[in-house]
Amino acid sequence: MKRPPFKYIVGLAMFLGICSAQASKLRPEGTFIEQKLANRSQGYFEKILSSVALRGIHQLGEPVHEEITNRILGCNGDADMCGDPDLDPDNAYVLAGVRWNDDPPFRFEKGHGDFGGCESGATVRLVTFPQCWGNVFKDGERKAHAGRALTAETAPLLTRSHFGDMQYLHAMASNDNETAAVVRQRILSWAEFTWRVGAGEFPNAMLVKDVPIEAISRDFRTKGWSIQDLFALGNPYVRKPENMSKLAFGSFLHMLQDSFADGHAERGSTDGMTTCGPTLPLKSPGQIVEFHSYVHQDSKKHGEDDSRIAFSTSWNARSPNVVDVGRVFNEYFLRKASWAEVKPYVECVFAIHPDARNSSPGDKYVISQR
After folding, report:
1. Is 59 exposed, middle or buried (0-12, 13-18, 19+ CB in 10 A)?
2. Whole-angstrom distance, CA of residue 234 vs CA of residue 75
3. How far apart are CA 140 and CA 121, in angstroms?
4. pLDDT tens digit sequence for 78-91
5. How far apart are the first and last CA of the chain?
6. Under a CB-based contact definition with an 8 Å cutoff, are residues 100 and 81 in contact?
7. What does the pLDDT average to over 110-124?
8. 220-242 burial by CB neighbour count: b if 16+ within 10 A, else e?
9. SS3 content of the chain, % helix, strand, coil (to 5)
């Protein structure tokens, strides 16, 4: 096949960078695990496109989740140091899990559409098939804004998680006017699932649809994926049980982190002294006033509040903040606490405010015009 002119590659790469950077504030190059995966799976043209595309994204994307995660895991340096995915090799698999929520690998199937850069049967990640990734992502966004459902029957995992029925991976509602209690239950189900995977309670060969958590089995009822398929499709570097454990914990941390981002959820104020209760003397963060829905949000405004500046502001304004809460969960994880022990604190962190509202874009994020 004739290769496109290099100027076309540059232009397309910049377009993909602009599209995807507004949706997920991650360093596009990925961890060394993902870079190894890209180097081994890409052909000549894909490597050029990936290289240029990722430079384009890097100009706009920021390593927000990486910085928060590294701080949760102990980094106390400046933003550049803590934002480096390769800061500490011991953190690599947790970071891969954190990145998974924004970039879940999916096998491109014929029913997903006819897009440039996509190959039927290929496992798509941002670092391996950037052109396909960007086209699928934007198609999902267009469908969501047009009111089309993105579910297991109609869409790949990438667009389900960003725009469809699995937006709880980002601590968001799937549609406008959902009750906070409904969204919270989905979040608690994913928290239970990832925690129990992390604890080794569910073997990696177990089919996700057979997991004894109703919301999880329902969302994957039509898929024959194992837990390993879900988290490690096309990525042999994370498949050892101890690495899968860290990856699942990372996915949990991503959802937690997003719940402290204003574009995802609105939390009430806290005096910094209120605890989770007499039997759980840990400090409680602000309660959830509203889980937002992305369907009618302005992506630019949403992206601005996913920025490093926005997160830094929230760290200083809230007590306990996302890093404080994440460090408590990390302590639980390191000592292999059971879900039964962790659950009360998860419920406290995602407690619903007495005056909670149904989901909406949030007044600040409503699309002003199409």
Report:
1. exposed
2. 30
3. 19
4. 888 998 888 898 89
5. 38
6. no
7. 82
8. beeeebbbbbbbbbebebbeeee
9. 50, 5, 40
Worst-scoring range by mean pLDDT, 44-53, 216-225, 253-262, 295-304? 44-53
Per residue in 282-330, pLDDT (tens digit) is 999 999 999 999 888 887 788 777 777 777 776 667 789 999 999 999 9
43 pLDDT tier (thresholds 50, 70, 90): low
The closest alpha carbon to 235, from 89, 124, 87, belongs to 124
Give me the helices (H) in the chain, please.
6-21, 32-41, 44-58, 64-72, 79-82, 92-100, 130-145, 157-163, 180-198, 214-219, 227-232, 241-258, 299-304, 308-317, 322-334, 339-349
> How far apart, in Å, are the Cα atoms of 138 and each of 20, 49, 236, 242, 362?
8, 18, 28, 35, 22
Q: Are 112 and 263 in contact (CB under 8 A)?
A: no
**Token pair recorded at residue 157:** 């995992």
Q: How far apart are CA 340 and CA 346, in angstroms?
A: 10
- Would the pTM count as exceeding 0.90? no
Please tell me the distance from the alpha carbon of residue 335 to that of residue 352, in angstroms, as a whole number: 28
**Nearest Cα residue to 56 out of 115, 112, 119, 134:** 134
Dihedral sign of CA atoms 133, 139, 141, 143 in order? negative
Report how far residue 222's alpha carbon sits from residue 121's, in angstroms, rounded to the nearest whole number: 18
The answer to whether 134 and 142 have CB atoms below 8 angstroms apart is no
Residue 367 contacts by C-beta under 8 Å, 6 or more apart in sequence?
296, 297, 298, 361
Distance, CA of 82 to CA of 91 (rounded, Å): 11
Distance CA(217)–CA(186), nearest Å, equals 12
Contacts of 188 (CB under 8 A, 6+ apart): 343, 346, 347, 350
Provide the residue type at 57 as one letter: I
Instruction: Phi first, then psi: give them for residue 60, nearest 5 degrees.
Output: -115, -35
Please enumerate in sequence order all residues whose Cβ is within 8 A of that of 212, keeping only pairs 6 or more positions apart, or say none.
none
